[in-house]
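We emphasize that the prediction below concerns an isolated chain of 423 residues; any contacts that depend on oligomerization or on bound cofactors are therefore not represented. The input was used exactly as deposited, without trimming of termini.
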Amino acid sequence: MNTAENNTSLQSSPIVWIGLDWGDQEHAFALQEATGKSEMGTLPHSAENLHAWLKTLGERYGARPVALAIEASRGPVIHALLEYPWLRIYPINPITSARFRSAFTPSGAKDDLPDAKVLLELVRDHAAKLRVLESQDPATVKLAGLVEARRKLVDRRTQLILQVQSLLKSYYPQALEVAGDLKSEVALAFLNRWPDLISLKSAKPATIKRLYYLHQVRSQDLVKQRLALIAQATALTTDAARVEVAVLHLRALLDQLKVFRQHIPRLDDAINQAFAGHADRALFSNLPGAGRQLAPRLCVAFGTLRSLYPDPASLQKYAGVAPVREKSGNQVWTHWRWQASTFLRQTFVEWAGQTVHYSEWAKIYYQRMLKKGKKHAVVLRALAFKWIRVLWKCWQDRQPYDEARYLKQLLHRKSPNAVPAKS
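Result of the prediction step, given as a token string:
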């Protein structure tokens, strides 16, 4: 099917609606044709069975549009479904399907086939209120996978470092001061060579100094200070049984940290390469405070499908930085937006925090809100909300953000975030 035929197919009404409930061992589906004919069934769990079923559907309906609903949490399956251009995929929020189900089964009765029917009814009767999935271009998909993989590795490394810190505090707290940053190569080398205070105390100062110098710790004052701490150190415990077990545990954790030291830089290189070739790189590479880590993540957050976010509010809501207002009678309250992508929200909020140091208007806004008594986290979410609106316009117009130009606009509008004109 060529592009023109595919676009025509996507614009026409579906001839079949399907609800697919994906399970661990088997997967239930409920299907209804436009003629009214319906069927239900199950698929044993395997990639081969899924693709065989989809190919059968394609042959049966001549690759004409088929609307399929599946819970949005089934990411890997959705990636497989995207390989079939005649499928119109509707990711359903699990909360949406659960509430729809409970509306008609107040008893709480539930099993897989009715779940598939619930998804079928949603896509058949309420498609206008749902969002059809649009796939990003391959460059964005690859970059998205890389930045998310890196974040997961960094988070796991952080958890591991906390374990190392806790272990050292239990028998060898001096190491936290004399080994250095636990993410660094020098700390790993130091702890591998001297995993307890007894072995460290038996080492000659010249040997310790040589290890520091070998790993680029060249500050005379710092090395002198650490050697003095080592000379004065007293063991927290001399119980050989406890120390020996702790050393074995430490070596196991250090080996894991070595793996992260190898693979996180490899991901960094892959991210830099993928970002360098991205079509929208120029829009994100020089944003204030973005840097090597956040610029690719911001690029992924927007993607290249301009139709996906027709206004700033659509992205603010999807990213979870737009607050939710609820009203009941005379009461009105605002709360956190649930079920948003944590990674996407982190991307915008973390970047907003960096812009406070690199953008004049962001710094003014941040300080102004703090003086009003707002909490740090609340201010950063509000700042992220404002930045999305600014960056969305740049993204839609394909024009890089210009701080000087924006500051002039703020001054012209007499915004409280404007930088006062110099007399």
